């Protein structure tokens, strides 16, 4: 009896343990299944996010630019055409201009270097710098104009919709539309150059164009590649205050993506009328990465190099490189991506060093001027 009772008691004492074990096993299985479901959902969400955010695209279609061949040995413009179109009886340098802009002190060394490259290329037109006086210090303005640009203060043209959706660094870029108002100064046509360009050859032939607006098609290193839309870093413009007024009146209500600011607007405004120029007039560094053979074989004909990225005179997020560090910065950038941009960076660096030497007396005076930005309004005739 004792043994039975002991056995029975022992069995009873075991029952809860068995029940607890079964319950615990069930809970573990449930937890395991829950974890599997959560992980599966997370993986699917990640997959769908990356699929729609970065869809796998087919390779670019074969075209003459992605698969460039060096077949044509002839120049863009023949000498007899140049001599005729630019003859003194047809070409008055005072009626034409090369214009750039300055909205921040950080680009002042680039403007000075651009000016020197224009002088070396013997470009015959007037050199004009449009700048925002409330954003540019006297010292930076002095540096920017040391190599020949004539400064003209202008009023800022604000972006539409308070700039909502525009790249933060492009918020002042609609001021570029002021270019069309230079007819008020007797300028019939102009070539606009971004400050991050460098002139390698004379391009006076552009001033003989009969068209109202011309630009070079843009190029991207991603799947967009070579596109129909143009890059607004180099523009040929026949000036007209009437066109300016009409463009400005339509900015607020035009339907265009604001991310690329004035470039986007100009592409929509002149979409069907723009004359597309050869890539020699806007040598976007993106071309070198996308079509190295094309870049190499068009070097001799290239008039203008555009340092879209990288820029040898900026650091961080569009921050100014101190004057005394610029040459060091050029050498640093020349090593990026296993030296992909070395030749182009040294072009800019050599031009900068030349400019710094030739205009050293003027530059010395510039560094003695105030580096703070005055609060002022533009009073130039271009703002009327």
TrEMBL record:
The lineage of its organism: Eukaryota, Fungi, Dikarya, Basidiomycota, Agaricomycotina. SUPFAM superfamilies: Nucleotide-diphospho-sugar transferases (SSF53448). It comes from Cerrena zonata. This is Glycosyltransferase family 8 protein. Pfam families: Glyco_transf_8. Keywords: Membrane, Transmembrane, Transmembrane helix. The chain crosses the membrane at residues 31-52. GO terms for molecular function: glycosyltransferase activity.
């Amino acid at each position: 009896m004792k043994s039975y009772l002991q056995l029975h008691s022992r069995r009873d004492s075991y029952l809860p343990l068995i029940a607890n074990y079964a319950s615990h096993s069930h809970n573990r299985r449930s937890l395991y299944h829950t974890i599997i479901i959560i992980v599966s959902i997370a993986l699917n969400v990640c997959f769908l996010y990356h699929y729609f955010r970065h869809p796998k695209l087919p390779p670019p279609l074969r075209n003459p630019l992605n698969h460039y061949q060096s077949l044509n040995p002839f120049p863009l413009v023949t000498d007899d055409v140049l001599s005729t179109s630019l003859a003194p009886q047809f070409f008055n340098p005072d009626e034409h201009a090369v214009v750039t802009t300055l909205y921040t002190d950080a680009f002042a060394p680039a403007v000075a270097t651009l000016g020197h490259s224009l002088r070396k290329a013997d470009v015959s037109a007037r050199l004009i710098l449009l700048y925002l006086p409330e954003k540019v210090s006297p010292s930076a303005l002095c540096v920017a104009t040391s190599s020949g640009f004539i400064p003209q203060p202008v009023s800022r043209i604000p972006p539409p919709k308070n700039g909502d959706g525009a790249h933060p660094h492009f918020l002042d870029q609609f001021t570029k539309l002021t270019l069309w108002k230079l007819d008020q100064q007797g300028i019939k046509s102009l070539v606009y150059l971004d400050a991050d360009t460098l002139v390698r050859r004379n391009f006076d032939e552009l001033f003989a164009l009969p068209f109202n607006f011309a630009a070079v098609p843009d190029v991207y290193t991603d799947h967009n590649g070579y596109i129909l839309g143009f890059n607004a870093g180099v523009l040929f413009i026949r000036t007209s205050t009437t066109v300016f007024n009409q463009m400005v009146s339509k900015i607020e209500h035009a339907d265009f993506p604001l991310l690329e600011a004035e470039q986007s607007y100009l592409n929509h405004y002149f979409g069907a009328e723009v004359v597309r120029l050869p890539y020699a007039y806007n040598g976007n560094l993106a071309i070198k990465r996308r079509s190295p053979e094309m870049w190499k074989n068009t070097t001799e004909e290239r008039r203008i190099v555009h340092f879209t990225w990288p820029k040898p005179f900026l650091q961080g997020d569009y921050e100014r490189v101190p004057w005394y560090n610029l040459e060091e910065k050029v050498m640093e950038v020349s090593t990026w991506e296993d030296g992909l941009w070395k030749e182009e960076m040294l072009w800019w660096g050599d031009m900068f060093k030349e400019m710094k030497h030739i205009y050293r007396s003027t530059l010395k005076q510039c560094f003695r001027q105030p580096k703070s930005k005055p609060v002022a309004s533009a009073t130039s005739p271009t703002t009327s």
